[in-house]
Amino acid sequence: MVSTVNVNGLRAAARKGFVPWLADTRADVVCLQETRAERWQLPEEVVAPPGWHVHLAPAEAKGRAGVAVYSRAQSDAVRVGFGVEEFDGAGRYMEVDVGPVTVASLYLPSGEVGTPRQEEKERFMEAFLPYLVRRRSEVEAQGRSLVVCGDWNIAHREADLKNWRNNRTKAGFLPEERSWLSRVFDEAGYVDVMRSLLPDREGPYSWWSYRGRAFDNDAGWRIDYQVATPGLASCAEQAWVERAESHDQRWSDHAPVTVRYQAG
């Protein structure tokens, strides 16, 4: 079982409920994004929880981005970045080999139309797609699988956000972003695991703004994905969003996205 969640600051999430969630989860691997912390800034129960091996990739820019992977099994290898200088120290991508599966934690830039942040997002996407193509070829040649878990910051379809009509000119639902994500699936051959299991469902959403009553009204976005090579995707049995029961029980503006894969 694999879970992924953007924690919106790991120090804050640890104070709000991440630690008991981690203690209770049945996941074998947990991927985190937007950790925004160095190892020394985090409490012991976060960096050395019983039963977990913790791998952190903070951003060189303090207080920004950052990804992590928690695994119950000892990893065989850990790699940070994907070979592009601009992003390899940005705390946006890391891979951990766990048995026959490579699990990656991705925090794709969020972007903002008409600003340098959107230009950064576009550069990231341009560089990341060829890497995904190459990486799939490499892992499959080794008889392995790859799942890229994380905050992709793109809602792929109209079914992936509640108010899609009002967001057609906003970062995260731009036509060119959605087209790029289609290429990840159609050209690179990866599978959106949640959507493969729930092809006709609205959402389920994984992010809700803290503003207004977005969470209470379930006016969310599905931007957190587990994107897997076909062999692993075919082993997925169940996928769900661990949505908090109420607004005051949230420990992030995102909720964990969890997939149960068939063992073997």
From TrEMBL:
<dbReference type="InterPro" id="IPR036691">
    <property type="entry name" value="Endo/exonu/phosph_ase_sf"/>
</dbReference>
<feature type="binding site">
    <location>
        <position position="34"/>
    </location>
    <ligand>
        <name>Mg(2+)</name>
    </ligand>
</feature>
<keyword id="KW-0464">Manganese</keyword>
<feature type="active site">
    <location>
        <position position="107"/>
    </location>
</feature>
<dbReference type="GO" id="GO:0006281">
    <property type="term" value="P:DNA repair"/>
</dbReference>
<keyword id="KW-0460">Magnesium</keyword>
<feature type="site" description="Transition state stabilizer">
    <location>
        <position position="153"/>
    </location>
</feature>
<dbReference type="GO" id="GO:0046872">
    <property type="term" value="F:metal ion binding"/>
</dbReference>
<dbReference type="Pfam" id="PF03372">
    <property type="entry name" value="Exo_endo_phos"/>
</dbReference>
<feature type="domain" description="Endonuclease/exonuclease/phosphatase">
    <location>
        <begin position="4"/>
        <end position="254"/>
    </location>
</feature>
<feature type="binding site">
    <location>
        <position position="151"/>
    </location>
    <ligand>
        <name>Mg(2+)</name>
    </ligand>
</feature>
<keyword id="KW-0378">Hydrolase</keyword>
<feature type="active site" description="Proton donor/acceptor">
    <location>
        <position position="151"/>
    </location>
</feature>
<feature type="site" description="Interaction with DNA substrate">
    <location>
        <position position="254"/>
    </location>
</feature>
<comment type="similarity">
    <text>Belongs to the DNA repair enzymes AP/ExoA family.</text>
</comment>
<dbReference type="InterPro" id="IPR005135">
    <property type="entry name" value="Endo/exonuclease/phosphatase"/>
</dbReference>
<feature type="site" description="Important for catalytic activity">
    <location>
        <position position="224"/>
    </location>
</feature>
<dbReference type="InterPro" id="IPR037493">
    <property type="entry name" value="ExoIII-like"/>
</dbReference>
<dbReference type="GO" id="GO:0008311">
    <property type="term" value="F:double-stranded DNA 3'-5' DNA exonuclease activity"/>
</dbReference>
<feature type="binding site">
    <location>
        <position position="254"/>
    </location>
    <ligand>
        <name>Mg(2+)</name>
    </ligand>
</feature>
<feature type="binding site">
    <location>
        <position position="153"/>
    </location>
    <ligand>
        <name>Mg(2+)</name>
    </ligand>
</feature>
<feature type="active site" description="Proton acceptor">
    <location>
        <position position="254"/>
    </location>
</feature>
<keyword id="KW-0479">Metal-binding</keyword>
<protein>
    <submittedName>
        <fullName>Exodeoxyribonuclease-3</fullName>
    </submittedName>
</protein>
<dbReference type="InterPro" id="IPR004808">
    <property type="entry name" value="AP_endonuc_1"/>
</dbReference>
<feature type="binding site">
    <location>
        <position position="253"/>
    </location>
    <ligand>
        <name>Mg(2+)</name>
    </ligand>
</feature>
<feature type="binding site">
    <location>
        <position position="6"/>
    </location>
    <ligand>
        <name>Mg(2+)</name>
    </ligand>
</feature>
